[in-house]
Amino acid sequence: MKKSTKILVAGVGGQGVVFLTNLIVKAALLAELPVATSEIHGLAQRGGSVSAGITIGANTYGFIEEGGVDLLIGLEPLEAQRCASFLNINSCAVISSSRILPHSVNSGYRSYPDIEKFIQFLEQNIEKVIYTTETPKGIKAILVNLYLLGRACKETHLPIKPQFIEKAIEELAREGFVEKSLEAFKQGYSSNGSVIETG
Predict the structure, then answer these.
(1) Which letter, b or e, does each residue of 41-74 get, where b requires 16 or more Cβ atoms within 10 Å of its Cβ?
(2) Which of 34, 36, 50, 76 could potentially form a cystine with 42 if both were Cys, beta carbons 3.0 to 4.6 Å apart?
């Protein structure tokens, strides 16, 4: 494992940013990897912008500086776009195409940005882009975060082996959701979806 891996999770309230952050931290602890996380930025209420930083490895600290992210997990494309300044040429990004329109767009005050242009920008400026345009049937919206984590675990430099993530899911998932949560993660890990490599 390299000296450290810095992860940024971004989405909106109701998508499970906080749960996914806690899950990654728990999995790192189970794998006996040093880990730290920042405080959650934004309001974790439904519809509000939410992001959290995680550092795994040596000299861990939760703060993520601009240009310092190794892996961006974007649960919503506009929220991922807001985090573009944290990426660098060696970064990887796993981004869901599922849009949740902010109030300013719903009210007609602003238009939703062209996400395809953002993805094209990433193609030209970072190492790898995983843009999920389709989520397998049977995966509920609240479990898309685990599907994306599965994709990240398989196709990026995430330094946590899948068995530790599965163990963390078993310990942290709500009662009655463990099986479906594991399935969402495993489907992401086994997915043959498109990957855009630029390096």
Answers:
(1) ebebeeeebbbbbbbbbeebebebeeebbbbbbb
(2) 50
